[in-house]
Design goal:
heterodimer, A: mainly alpha, B: mainly alpha, flat, transport (chain A)
């Protein structure tokens, strides 16, 4: 048993090293001089740590602008998703109304639908509304329930709250809005956090949406900005790596901030899905 | 006596209205962002529509052209399935192995969980950039390692023969979230069942084969379905890393749709392509669901 445990530990250590090496290579390359990248045999570590590369990224492309644009999309999306997914999760978990289960099943089934099917008409619609190359197509849909997955997640959490809590509030004459705000929301704070984190990740990582809907440099998000960097400076791998690292960092920071909830959310989707 | 009854009825009515009001965003969302566009997309797929000209009704011509004439369609299907099956199978195997070892109660489990999960939160554009650099035939890390142990080097994403395996390798790097889901499943395996096998004289393999595996089949099934749906829609890595090449070797299906719609402005044709994708995914998912009756074991009356 002891030996097995040690052996498992060793295997995991090797796997973890394999998972970590690309990160280390990213950081290492981002701190090198350009010519240093192409030396053979390669240097494992840079001769001197060239932090200047990170500053250069901001000089060459309007990285600050891209960051600002990303936040301009991210913040209203997060508000919309958290607000509407919790509202809908509450409705589908706690309120009885006609066709409730049918609606819920329909909404859940959209998870299976490839987004390519709705993409073209949606694009045409936005283009008819003259809203292509604005942030509207990337923000507004988030205010309509925030996606089946988030509604599902919220509903799971609402279902776990004891029934008598809201039932007695109803008898006391509280309105459903009051119950939702005063009783329910405080109880599902962890779920709200999970949904907020997932939403942050989705927007931060989104590539397809901005690619389709934004076509002017000044409107680009970080994901598209990074692509710009590749197109313009295909040989400056140190800058490309620095730019990538800048994009990875906030995602990792967010992960550490909400690690507990995150992993809980991930496991939950697997078991109860 | 009639008063409480009518009060109850009034309350029921209030709940009905409140329910619809609270669920309204999702219901509207379903109609505006899913059902409406689906109907429209079906209509558009029956037309010849280039952005500047008016749409022209062509019936099923687009579908006919896709299936009988479009060589890119065939190639794209081939590489998409190659990638999807490869990445689902290998990512699943990797995540099962990682989860099994983590479940052994090794020390530092929290640290391991974090390390394995980190690659999955790297934005796809950033991870694509990183892997282009790792795959670089001259200066990349992978060839450097191969060279230093005396093995022949590869062209990785620059050769049609190795490009899909390279992308599969890259997707295995992100096996962490699947591993966490499987780990959660493993931790739900009842101890008494494992002990029962031991009492009957079974060894580690028996426990694994007759208890652990059947108990985690629902989790495997979930990962299989989600992985398949996800990888059949791969796009960003091909767009960033290979531009669909070499020799259309990574012209993934969604890439083909993107190209037809947003580069060539063939909206009708691209819509037809997207419906074929939908049909394929639906058929495949249905197939996996159907087969699941034979191999997915739901214990505890779940």
């Amino acid at each position: 048993m002891r030996i097995r445990k040690t052996a498992s530990f060793a295997v995991l250590l090797v796997c973890a090293a394999l998972a970590a090496v690309p990160f280390l290579w990213l950081v290492r390359s981002s701190l090198m001089r350009t010519d240093e990248l192409f030396i053979f045999p390669p240097r494992i570590l840079p001769e001197e740590l060239l932090w200047q590369n990170y500053a250069d990224v901001f000089d060459i492309i309007p990285f600050a602008r891209y960051l600002f644009n990303t936040l301009l999309i991210l913040i209203p999306v997060m508000i919309g998703v958290v607000l509407t997914s919790s509202m809908c999760g509450y409705a589908f978990a706690r309120l009885r109304f006609r066709f409730r289960n049918a609606w819920f099943a329909l909404i859940l089934s959209t998870m299976m639908l490839p987004s390519a099917v709705t993409l073209i008409p949606t694009f045409i619609m936005w283009s008819e509304l003259r809203a292509v190359n604005t942030f509207w197509p990337l923000i507004l849909p988030a205010w309509f329930g925030g996606g089946a997955f988030n509604i599902f997640l919220m509903r799971q959490f609402f279902m776990n709250i004891p029934r008598d809590l809201d039932e007695s509030a109803v008898i006391d004459g509280a309105s459903f809005l009051q119950i939702y705000i005063r009783i329910m929301l405080p109880l599902v704070k962890p779920a709200l956090t999970v949904v907020a984190f997932f939403t942050f990740m989705n927007v931060w990582n989104d590539f397809f949406g901005p690619l389709i809907f934004l076509n002017e440099d000044s409107k680009f998000t970080l994901a598209l900005g990074l692509l710009q960097l590749k197109g313009m400076y295909a040989t400056d791998w140190n800058l490309l790596m620095a730019g990538s690292a800048i994009m990875v960092l906030p995602a990792i920071a967010m992960f550490f901030a909400g690690q507990k909830y995150f992993i809980e959310g991930i496991s939950l989707t697997g078991i109860k899905g | 006596m009639s008063k409480p009854v009518s009060r109850k009825a009034a309350l029921k009515k209030k709940e009905e209205i409140a329910g619809y009001l609270f669920a309204l965003p999702a219901i509207l969302g379903l109609l505006i962002w899913t059902i409406g566009p689906m109907v429209a997309s079906l209509g558009i797929s029956l037309t010849d529509w280039q952005i500047l000209s008016a749409a022209k009704w062509v019936g099923f011509d687009n579908y006919r052209t896709v299936i009988t004439e479009d060589l890119f369609f065939k190639k794209s299907l081939l590489v998409t399935f190659y990638f999807a099956i490869g990445s689902v199978v290998f990512t699943m195997l990797a995540s099962i192995v990682v989860a099994l070892f983590m479940n052994y109660g090794v020390r530092g489990q929290a640290a391991f969980r974090t390390i394995f999960y980190l690659p999955t939160i790297v934005p796809i554009v950033a991870s694509s950039m990183l892997w282009v650099w790792l795959f670089n035939p001259d200066f990349g890390l992978l060839n450097t390692v191969l060279k230093s142990v005396g093995l022949p080097t590869l062209m990785w994403i620059y050769d049609e023969a190795t490009v899909i395996p390279s992308l599969i390798l890259m997707s295995m790097w992100g096996c962490g979230s699947a591993a966490l889901i499987i780990l959660a499943g493993l931790q739900d395996v009842p101890k008494h069942l494992l002990e029962a096998v031991e009492i009957d004289g079974g060894n580690g393999w028996h426990k694994f084969r007759y208890v652990t595996i059947p108990m985690i089949t629902p989790v495997i099934f979930f990962n299989l379905v989600m992985g398949l749906i996800g990888s059949l829609q791969a796009f960003a890595q091909a767009y960033v890393m290979t531009g669909g090449g070499p020799n259309n070797g990574t012209l993934f299906y969604v890439y083909l749709i993107y190209r037809e719609a947003f580069q060539y402005n063939h909206f009708g044709y691209a819509s037809a392509l997207s419906w074929i994708l939908f049909a394929l995914i639906a058929a495949l998912t249905a197939g996996v669901f159907k087969s699941s009756k034979a191999w997915v074991h739901y214990g505890g009356g779940k």
